[in-house]
Amino acid sequence: MENLVHTLMEKLGAFGIGLSMFLENIFPPIPSELIMPLAGYLATRGDMNIFVVIAAGSIGSMLGILPWYYLGRRLGHDGVRRFASRHGRWLTMTASDVDAAAERFKRRGAVSVLVGRLIPTVRTLISVPAGVANMPIGKFLALSFVGTLIWTSALAVAGYLLGQAYSVVADYVDPVSTGVLILLVLIYVYRVISYKPEGG
C-alpha cells in the first residue's frame, strides 16, 4: 500500500496527494496516517512545499466527505432506518442503533463532526449522520474543514520533521497498516456472525 501511495505522489505531485486523500475518505481502509506523513517527508526533499502538501491533502479530504454527507441527506433518517432493517446483518447495526445514533448526534452534532475528523474511520462515517440530521452544508463544511486541517497538518508536519528518518519508519508503516486492516476485517466478520436482528 505504501508503494502505491508513494507512486501516486511522485507521478502526480500535489494532485496525487489530493487524490489519495479523496480515496481515503471514499474507501476508509486507505489510511491517511500513511498518506500525509509520506507527503510531508517528500516535502523535505524539495519535491513540494509543506504548505502545498497540507492544502492538497485537506482539499482532497474535504471533497471525499461530500458523497457520504449527501448520501445521508438523500436517504434521511427513515431511509437509513429502512436500509438498516433490510441489511442490518451486513451493516452490523439495527434500526434501533440508527435511532440511538441520531439522538446522540442531535445532542452533540457540531462537536461530533469537529472531533470526528481526528478519529480514524469515524472521520469518514460521521458525514452520514450529519447528512441525515440535515446539518446546514455551510456549518458542516466549516466544522469539517477545521478538523481536517488540524489532522492533515499534524500528520504532514510529523512526516516533515522525521525527514530522512522516514525511510526507516516507512518499513514499519505498511505492515502495521495492513495488520490494522486485517484486524478490522476480523472484527467485522465477528459482528456479522454474532448479529441478532430485532425481535429475533
UniProtKB/TrEMBL annotation:
The keyword Transcription regulation does not apply. The chain crosses the membrane at residues 12-30, 50-71, 140-163, 175-193. It comes from the Bacteria. Its main location: membrane. InterPro entries: DedA_domain (IPR051311), VTT_dom (IPR032816). It is a multi-pass membrane protein. Residues 30-160 form the VTT domain. This is Membrane protein DedA with SNARE-associated domain. It comes from Neorhizobium huautlense.
